[in-house]
Amino acid sequence: ADEVGFSQAQPFNHFSLGVYQEYEGDRNAEGERHGFGKAQLPNGDTYEGEYERGLRSGRGTYRFKNGALYTGDYLQNKKHGKGVFFYPDGSKYAGDWVHDQRQGYGEYLYANGDTYTGEWANNKRHGQGTYVYKDTGSKYVGAWVNGIQEGPAELIHLNHRFKGRFLNGKPLGHGKFIFDIGCEQHGEYIEPVQVKEIEKEEEEEDEPPLPAEPKWKASEITKLTPHDEEPAPSE
């Protein structure tokens, strides 16, 4: 929420001055908020931290009326730099910000206990990152595009892992399952061919069908390739 002067938001009488303090802190020669100060916004949010020429700039803590809280760097009223955001649902993001967006590198702890650690762009998981599923202990290590698992990656489970490529959050194409017992199964995930119904008139179009799950087609089982084997213990 942008900071707005209380007097601009609604009229108030002299009796309210003793109860409500819009801003308390440093100002420059022009009377702008400049330096360190505390402010309460008309919507109930509060800010305590550094200002520069009337705008939140530098280190500060912003408390939202709904229970959310951000503490970190600001630049011209926007979250910019390093900061931690605590969301009302109990989730938390700690990392880089650019113009109010999660961007750069950071860690997100989700309300269900899952975690993502890696690269961000425009508030979404984007680049290289690791997502850990709390319930199963499995983790996805690899590429992301606009918040979706896409590109080369490994999906690591308790006693085996899949190494291949993902598209739209699902494995697709050639890959292999690597088992801790010392072998690997090669194959590919194939997208099932969808049978098209006879086309209807445009005005009678139905809901689009749900995307079909890719099916695994195994080709061969081999010993671990050298780069996947653990080094033998020296005697």
UniProtKB/TrEMBL annotation:
<dbReference type="Pfam" id="PF02493">
    <property type="entry name" value="MORN"/>
</dbReference>
<keyword id="KW-0969">Cilium</keyword>
<feature type="compositionally biased region" description="Basic and acidic residues">
    <location>
        <begin position="214"/>
        <end position="235"/>
    </location>
</feature>
<dbReference type="GO" id="GO:0051321">
    <property type="term" value="P:meiotic cell cycle"/>
</dbReference>
<comment type="function">
    <text>Functions as part of axonemal radial spoke complexes that play an important part in the motility of sperm and cilia.</text>
</comment>
<dbReference type="GO" id="GO:0031514">
    <property type="term" value="C:motile cilium"/>
</dbReference>
<dbReference type="InterPro" id="IPR003409">
    <property type="entry name" value="MORN"/>
</dbReference>
<keyword id="KW-0469">Meiosis</keyword>
<protein>
    <recommendedName>
        <fullName>Radial spoke head 1 homolog</fullName>
    </recommendedName>
</protein>
<keyword id="KW-0966">Cell projection</keyword>
<dbReference type="GO" id="GO:0005634">
    <property type="term" value="C:nucleus"/>
</dbReference>
<dbReference type="GO" id="GO:0007286">
    <property type="term" value="P:spermatid development"/>
</dbReference>
<keyword id="KW-0963">Cytoplasm</keyword>
<keyword id="KW-0677">Repeat</keyword>
<keyword id="KW-0282">Flagellum</keyword>
<dbReference type="GO" id="GO:0035082">
    <property type="term" value="P:axoneme assembly"/>
</dbReference>
<feature type="region of interest" description="Disordered">
    <location>
        <begin position="194"/>
        <end position="235"/>
    </location>
</feature>
<keyword id="KW-0206">Cytoskeleton</keyword>
